[in-house]
Design a protein that fits this description.
The protein is an alpha/beta fold. It is 32% helix and 19% strand.
Length: 717
């Protein structure tokens, strides 16, 4: 997964690169002589190779600066510095210290050391370089995600050797790795939960003995003592018993809270560091420094935690890799799963990729033999999963001929009614809001805004229709196709669904979980819990029943991963329901097919294997790598033509980015276009290297405009 080194050789740094790269306007100082008339240089290793924080791809390389004698003790590799570059004062990181090379021009001295804390260690530098290379990005962009913003007060405490524990942490807690901690981990009930999975006990034993196995875990239950947080916590406790650290990455803050709670149940509080931007700069940076100094040895957090500076790393864990929250929203758009895979290979650490379902990427790892599947045998699956009923099968169709067109068929209504007698009932809906889409009552054409052509929606029972894009009200709307003036709901959101269920079950409690009002947990009392996809709360003792609505709309999305993503969401919700032996029932309202069959059989691995086989036959991701190039048409054509000269690839496009691009552009506005490049894995390293070089060359020479380059974007196809 890695590739060739990111940085130029010493000969290139000394001026052996292209003439454009050696222009004084770009390089304020290249190696090799002390500055004439400047401050006295350090006596030992007076040259610092500095990576400048800049989004410009042609500046993605180290530049040499002279180290003044007064900064010799603090200007060490990994620290933040300020430098003069092209008449500006820019931030950067020192990558290394070295000696002068004779015959070179005079160097510009460092301006100052911003912080003496070496936040960029050698392992992080190697990992960030590999990520930048894999995604054809810049090292500066990767480090922006990997290293949190500094907090000066915490750095003073760090340099002084003061404790950086949170108030909630117990400084007197017993350190992990001691005999008592090992016994505590061995007696953890979650460790016993692995015995229900094939290869599970062997995986834990391998971790505890200091090994580095690779496993793909298909978890069965999402609540209770055998839930996925307990299983992962047991794996972390096992690797801690061998004296090594761990990194655990989850999609969102709700999963993070559950995971942290499970870890604190088996490890001393001082060992665990939580890393997420949602906690704010101070707590995040405090925990980063704790990991950097070795006070904490287990990092748990969202996607940026994949870069956490854990010492003696023994295990990396990614939960629910199919969730798009694992994708960084800034360039180079790296996926935390791939970051952890690179790190596992780099540091020879064990790797655990876990989920209730299985993505095609994980199936590919299992198919190649890189990872071993950890699955529950069929008897265990039958004893721990709910009964699944599909309202679109032939039996239900005979009982209820209108079940195919009804949003809440009779079987679903009966399941909710019976479930409310035993506990909470989960209703999963596809859309948030009240009526997120409207159509014409006469011709059923989607209702569009007359100003921006955006979709119209209704936010409440008494609210007028308004545009979802520009928020312009449309009280006098009329259809541009048939002239009709009456609107009807094209889809019901979570609020409308909750309103309808409240009328259908008078006197019952209705709880909604969506948008910015997502609930983490619900009690055991009977209630209707209406949640959008991904916002399902966890019931203390499991749900009595679950209704998975809007299945057809999810499966019919124009997306390559519509089926895979829908199955993942169904399994995540169904895993929160009690077993069939306790009356647990899941009702799915979707046409019978491969996706519903996988849920009925509770066979996520079989569905993933079938999907991967189809992708391999069609040469679509993840059977190949995908690069999307977006920008002005001429710029996209220039970039893709240059790539095809370096590597022979299959190209599709350029084509308009969206249907809105087909409309006449306003004066001075040009639509964006996109080209897709399908890259065999054998050519991936060569292709990404060529893409990085083309981006740098184009930016330096300004031969074309910039383009957005994304590799392996799951939302592109």
């Amino acid at each position: 997964m890695g590739g060739e080194g990111l940085f130029p050789l010493a000969a290139d740094a000394a001026g052996g690169g292209s003439p454009a790269a050696r222009q004084p306007s770009l390089l304020q100082g290249f190696p090799a002589q002390p500055p004439a008339g400047g401050p006295e240089a350090a006596a030992v290793d007076p040259v610092a190779a500095v990576l400048i924080e800049s989004p410009l791809p042609h500046l993605d390389r180290p530049f040499d600066y002279s180290v003044p004698a007064k900064l010799a003790d603090t200007a060490l590799p990994g620290v933040r510095v300020k430098v003069r570059f092209n008449g500006q004062e820019l931030s950067g990181f020192i990558l290394e210290r070295k000696g002068y090379q004779p015959g070179g021009p005079a160097l510009v001295p460092l301006l100052k050391v911003v912080s003496a804390v070496p936040v960029l260690g050698p392992s992080l530098l190697t990992l960030a370089s590999a990520v930048a290379e894999r995604y054809a990005g810049t090292l500066s962009d990767v480090l922006r995600t990997a290293i949190p913003p500094r907090v000066a007060g915490l750095e003073k405490s760090y340099l002084a050797g003061d404790a950086l524990l949170d108030e909630a942490k117990d400084p007197e807690a017993e350190p992990a790795g001691s005999p008592a901690a090992e016994n505590h981990a061995a007696g953890n009930p979650a460790a016993q939960g692995w015995s229900a999975y094939g290869n599970g006990p062997a995986f834990l034993q391998h971790l505890a003995s200091g090994g580095s196995p690779h496993a793909v875990l298909t978890a069965v239950q999402g609540y209770g003592p055998d839930s996925w947080p307990r299983l992962i916590a047991a794996a972390v406790a096992a690797v801690r018993s061998s004296g090594r650290g761990a990194v655990v990455v989850v999609p969102d803050h709700r999963d993070l809270s559950r995971m942290e709670e499970a870890l604190l149940a088996v490890l001393p509080a001082r060992d665990v560091a939580r890393l997420t931007a949602e906690d704010g700069q101070t707590p995040r940076y405090r925990n980063y420094l704790r990991l950097l100094r070795g006070d904490a040895v287990v990092a748990v957090g969202t996607r940026s935690a994949a870069y956490a500076p854990v010492r003696d790393l023994g295990l990396v864990v990614c939960w629910d890799d199919g969730d798009d929250l694992h994708i960084e929203q800034r360039a180079p758009y790296a996926h935390s799963r791939e970051v952890l895979l690179l790190r596992s290979e780099q540091e020879s650490a064990a790797c655990l990729l876990a989920a209730h379902s299985r993505s095609t990427e994980l199936q590919r790892l299992v198919g190649t033999g890189w990872a071993v599947p950890v699955e529950a045998p069929r008897p265990v699956v039958r004893s721990r999963t709910p009964r699944v009923l599909n309202t679109a099968d032939s039996f239900e169709q005979e009982r209820d001929p209108l079940a195919r067109i009804a949003r809440l068929p009779g079987a679903a209504w009966r399941a909710a009614k019976d479930g409310l007698e035993r506990g909470p009932v989960l209703i999963q809906v596809a859309r948030a809001g009240y009526a997120p889409s409207l159509v014409c009552e006469e011709c059923r054409e989607p209702a569009r805004c007359t100003h921006c052509q955006g979709p119209l929606a209704v936010t409440g029972p008494s609210s007028p229709p308004q545009c979802r894009w520009c928020s312009t009200p449309a009280p006098e709307w009329h259809c541009r196709h048939c002239g009709g003036r009456r609107l009807r709901r094209g889809a019901a959101g979570v609020l409308r669904t909750a309103e309808e269920l409240g009328r259908a079950f008078p006197g019952k409690t209705v709880i909604t979980s969506s948008g910015d009002q997502v609930k983490a947990t619900v009690g055991a009392a009977p209630a209707l819990v209406v949640a959008t996809i991904g916002g399902e709360p966890v019931a203390e003792s499991g749900y009595a029943a679950a209704l998975l609505l809007d299945g057809d709309s999810l499966l019919r999305r124009e997306n390559l991963r519509a089926g895979e993503d829908t199955v993942r969401r169904w399994f995540n919700a169904a895993a929160l329901v009690r077993p069939a032996s306790e009356g647990g029932l899941v009702v799915v309202t979707a046409d019978d097919g491969t996706a519903t069959g996988a849920l009925l059989r509770w066979d996520p691995a079989g569905f993933a294997a079938r999907e991967l086989a189809l992708r391999q036959e069609l040469k679509l991701p993840p059977a190949v790598r995908l690069a999307s190039v977006t920008g002005q048409r001429a710029d996209v054509a220039h970039f893709t033509d240059a790539v095809e000269k370096a590597v022979e690839l299959r190209r599709v496009g350029p084509s308009p980015l969206s249907l809105s691009s087909l409309r006449p552009a306003t004066p001075g506005e040009e639509p964006d276009f996109r080209s897709l490049l399908f890259i065999p894995y054998g050519q991936a390293a060569q292709a990404t290297k060529a893409m990085r070089a083309i981006k740098a060359s184009t930016a330096a020479k300004r031969t074309a405009g910039p383009v957005q380059l994304r590799l392996d974007g799951v939302d592109v196809l």
